[in-house]
Amino acid sequence: MTLENLLKIGRLSLLAPSRDDIQRLLEAAKRNLADAKVDAVSEESRFDSAYKCIMQCAMATLRASGYRTSTNQPGHHQTAIQALPLTIGLDSKTMVLLDTFRKQRNISDYNGDPISPSLLEACIAEAGAMLVRVEAWLTAAYPDLK
Predict the structure, then answer these.
(1) Residue 139 and residue 16: Cα distance in Å, rounded?
(2) CA torsion sign, 91 to 144 to 127 to 59?
(3) Residue among 94, 112, 98 nearest 43 (CA)
(4) Measured distance CA(117)–CA(104) in Å, rounded
(5) Which positions ≥6 away from 33 have C-beta within 8 Å?
(6) Taking the CA atoms of the chain, what radius of gyration do you get in angstroms?
(7) Maximum C-alpha span of the chain
(8) Which residue range(s) make up the domain with 49?
(9) Is a pLDDT exceeding 90 seen at residue 143?
(10) What is the pLDDT of residue 36?
(11) DSSP category for residue 68
(12) How many domains does the chain have?
């Protein structure tokens, strides 16, 4: 699968890269990561914030590459995660873990299932690692957008 294939099947649309848009996404990701580390709120809220950081990072990689997910179709979070190997070269093991977070977010949101402390900590750790990785990738691949 390529980004062009995802475009052809309607999972992505073209969008010219914008330094301001990418910077806004990264700043929001940083705020969400900070929120995820606040012990005074529920584990579900902290998990949502960490997951949001991951998604904002994924969206930033797509934006830098000239794409965005087609948000008018279901599955745009899944598409953003699946595109990470195509943008930043994310390994399949990490992609599977991120997809686990996506599925757990859906279960928690739609069924009210609690978030385990271990899953919360894993999500926060991956969100922090993703932010570092995306910023390094942007610096190397698209320095004019960083």
Answers:
(1) 18
(2) negative
(3) 112
(4) 13
(5) 49, 50, 53, 124, 127, 128, 131
(6) 15
(7) 45
(8) 3-145
(9) yes
(10) 98
(11) E
(12) 1
Other CB atoms within a 10 A radius of the CB of residue 90 amount to 21
Report how far residue 136's alpha carbon sits from residue 116's, in angstroms, rounded to the nearest whole number.
30
Number of CB atoms found within 10 A of residue 140's CB: 10
- Cα separation, 50 vs 123, in Å, equals 6
Q: How many residues does the chain have?
A: 146
Locate 66 and state its tokens: 């000239």
Confidence of residue 72 (pLDDT cuts 50, 70, 90): confident
Q: Which residue has the tokens 């595109």?
A: 83
What is the distance between the alpha carbons of residues 85 and 55, in angstroms, rounded to a whole number? 14
pTM listed for this prediction? 0.95
pLDDT tens column, 37-66: 999 999 999 999 999 999 999 999 999 999
Token pair, residue 108, equals: 């928690």
Q: What is the pLDDT of residue 1?
A: 85
Say yes or no to pLDDT of 73 above 80: no
| Best CA proximity match to 138, nearest among 32, 43, 56 | 56
Supply the CATH number for residue 122's domain: 1.20.120.330
User: Cα(71)–Cα(108) distance, rounded to whole angstroms?
Assistant: 21
């900070």: which residue's tokens? 34
